[in-house]
Structures are given as C-alpha cells and as structure tokens.
Specification:
This protein has 427 residues and is α/β, with parallel strands linked by helices. 35% of the residues lie in helices and 16% in strands.
Length: 427
C-alpha cells in the first residue's frame, strides 16, 4: 500500500482531490513515479520561479498555490497601473503604483497561509545564472518576445551535461486576445523558443514617410515619437522601454503630434503597448493558458502524468479550437543548435538594408545587430569609435563585403548569445 503523507489529515484537506493523483499510480504515470509521501513532499519542496506577475502571472501564482506548491518565487519589474485592474485580480485600487511582484505575492499568501512566495522587483536580465540554478521549474507569463528569448538563451547556456540539475524545464505561456499557447521546453533537449521564433512574426513596419508626413493612426504618432523625435532630441540616450520617464516622454511627444493632425486615441497605455509591443489580453484566455501551464508544472514536479510534447495552441476567436503538436528542434537554431542558419539575400542589397531586414525577418527579429565575418568587422553598433569606423560599410552592397555562402556572426545587446547566419546570394 502506498505510504500516505505524514502530515495530519486536516493539513491536507484542501489538497484532497490533488492527492488522489499523488497517492496512487495511474495508467499514464511515469515508470519512476512513487505514489504517496515522497511525491507529495517533492511537490511541496519544489522551488518554482514565475516570471511575470501580470494578467497571466496572477493566474499562474494562484493556480500554483492551489496545486500544492509551497515554495514559489516571482519576478516582475513593473508597477501596478489602474488599467491592470480589469483582469489582474490580485491587485486592488489602493495598490496602484506599487510593485506587481510584491503585491501579488502578498495577496496569494493572504489566502494560502501555508504557501511562501518570495517576490523580486526587477529585471530578469539583472539576475545571474546562480539565481536561476536554484529553481526546479521556471514558468513564464511574459508579454514580451525579447524577454522570452533572453530567458530561453540563458537556460540553454546553463546546461552542463555532467550535471543533470543544471537543466531547468521552462514552461512558457502566452496570450493574444482570444488566442494563446502553452509549451514545455527542456533546454538543449527539445525545441526551444528560438527554434519556434518564426511562429511569432514581428509587427509589420510602417513606412517612415507615413510617420514623418501623414500619420493616420495613434500608433503612427507613437512610432514617430519613438523613431524620429527621440533621435532628434535624445539621440545620446539609449531608449529604455522599461523606464517610465522614457515612456512618459514618448507619450507627451506622440500626444502633441496627434493633436496636430486631429488623431484621437493616444494614451499612456497605448504608448506603452506600441513601444513595448504589448499584446491586448482577455482575462478568460489568460485563465485557460495559465491552467495549462500549471498543469504542466505539476506533472513535471510529480511525474504523475506525461508532460506536454511540446506545444499546445488555443484559439477562441472563431468558436473554440485546441491543437497539440511536437515542434521539432532545429539543428541551425542559434541557441540550442550548432549549425549556421541559412538566409537567402539579394547581393545588391546594401548592408544598411540587410541590417534593417534582420528586424523584420521572422527567423531573426534583431533590432540592433552588430555584424562580423571571420576576417572582418562589417558593422558595430557600439562603442561610438567602432561605429564610426565601420559606418562606411552601411552603404556598400553585400557582394562587396562578403562572398556567396559566407557565414556572418551577429550579436545584439538584447541577447546573451551570438547568432550565426550563412548568407546565400539569390541567383
């Protein structure tokens, strides 16, 4: 007979339905599954990190606490805005202006006395590998592709084949209106976020002539403030889309621009959404995706059922539809693969045009790339001395700088890894 949890019955009463999964084996349990006290203890002691305490993060924190996890950590750099209150249910009106991570942690612990949630108010990029190595599972509830790519690359770079504990499963959830996805990533072993990047096409670019002369939408005014006004007035300052002062400056410039052309709709929230490429969220979609993510975390922590392999998509905009499939690992993935990714280019394209295309290509999405070959530096974004030295290359054609099929190394300050592309000329 399976060993029961040593705690008295009353302490486990709230988890009695969960314990039905943990106190006995089922037809789909892992061969290594040990029912009873060992698995329950393992669940309670599993240290889990939740990245993001917004619409998805609030649901995830609540679900984890109700699923038997007792040691939860959450990190988020944002503060609570009044616009968050319609779906981020852990926050109240009096919490506006306070740290999302701290308020969310306190709110859940107030309702779940036996759960400890440790909040961190800051950027995920400010934490080192030792911080991430302490967790058993990491769950993302982010609204940023860039942040997903960063944590994905970090977890992949941490993997040491001689140390199984260095492999940290990543459960990633994302929503966009009535659509969403949940995926389970085992760094270096399965398809990673970078492998799947082309499924997240970048936002269509607006021609600069439209931004500069005839804006028609509030988004055009905001893009004008970000691309043109910032360069004119604050070119010596690097735009930080997470800095409230920078967002406020852009909002004020965009608002004045909108008034000039009688365009309504420019708000601080809209400005933040355009600049950070934030996708509108619906509470019910967040709940569905968060439930899927937490179920996967529960299965990873207990081995009570097989985990997702490895991508689940959901859409509710036209009836309701879900689909699960295995996204294959790509050997030319710059993060988990070892081959250069092939890109077909026009040899008569200038280096400047190629650099701009890297921000638009679904498989790249690099905004400030520095490029080099094995023999020469093509273009450096910084420091200023190297940027000035390599600037003349921007007007040169690719065929003047590289040969057909040559590998080009690309780095971007937003990521901790270098990318390798093999540039193949169009016939």
């Amino acid at each position: 007979m399976a060993a029961q949890h040593p705690a008295n019955d009353s302490s486990r009463r709230r988890y009695q339905y969960i314990d039905k999964f943990l106190n006995r084996a089922g037809p789909s349990t892992d061969p290594d599954f040990v029912p009873g006290a060992p698995t329950i203890t393992n669940l309670e002691t599993s240290k889990v990190l939740v990245i993001g305490a917004g619409g998805l993060g609030c649901e995830i924190l609540k679900n984890l606490a109700m699923s038997g996890f007792k040691d939860i950590h959450v990190i988020d750099m944002d503060t609570i805005d009044v616009s968050n209150l319609n779906r981020q249910f852990l926050f109240q009106k009096d919490d506006v202006g306070m740290s999302k991570a701290e308020v969310a942690a306190a709110s859940v612990m107030k309702r779940s006395k036996d759960v400890k949630i440790t909040p961190f108010n800051g950027k995920i990029q400010d934490k080192d590998e030792d911080f991430y190595l302490q967790f058993k599972i990491i769950i993302c509830g982010l609204d940023s592709i860039e942040a997903r790519r960063w944590i994905n690359a970090t977890l992949c770079s941490m993997v040491d084949m001689d140390n199984p504990e260095s492999l940290k499963p990543l459960v990633d959830g994302g929503t966009e209106g009535f659509k969403g996805q949940a995926r389970v990533i085992l760094p270096t072993l399965t398809s990673c976020i970078e492998c799947q990047l082309d499924m997240h096409a970048p936002r269509a670019a607006v021609p600069l002539c439209t931004l500069a002369t005839i804006p028609r939408q509030p988004e055009h005014c905001i893009e004008w403030a970000k691309i043109i006004a910032w360069e004119e007035h604050r070119k010596d300052t690097v735009l930080d889309t997470d800095d409230p002062e920078h967002i406020t400056w852009l909002y004020e410039k965009a608002l004045n621009r909108a008034k000039e052309f009688n365009i309504p709709g420019v708000t601080y929230q809209t400005t933040q959404g355009v600049v950070k490429n934030i996708i509108p969220a619906i509470a019910s979609t967040n709940a569905i995706i968060a439930a899927a993510c937490c179920n996967e975390a529960f299965k990873l922590a207990t081995s009570c059922n097989p985990n997702l392999t490895n991508y689940m998509m959901y859409t509710g905009d036209d009836s309701i539809y879900t689909y699960t499939f295995e996204h294959e690992q790509k050997p030319d993935c710059p993060v988990c693969g070892n081959l250069a990714k092939t890109i077909t280019v026009n040899p008569n394209q200038t280096l400047q045009e190629f650099i701009e295309s890297l921000g638009e290509r679904p498989e790249a999405q690099l905004k400030k790339p520095t490029l080099r070959t094995k023999s020469t530096s093509l273009y450096f974004q910084s420091p200023p001395s190297l940027e000035e030295q390599t600037r003349p290359n921007l007007s040169k054609k690719l065929r003047e700088l590289i040969s057909d099929g040559e590998e080009v190394g690309v780095s971007d300050p937003a990521f901790i890894i270098d990318f390798k592309f093999q540039l193949v000329f169009q016939p």
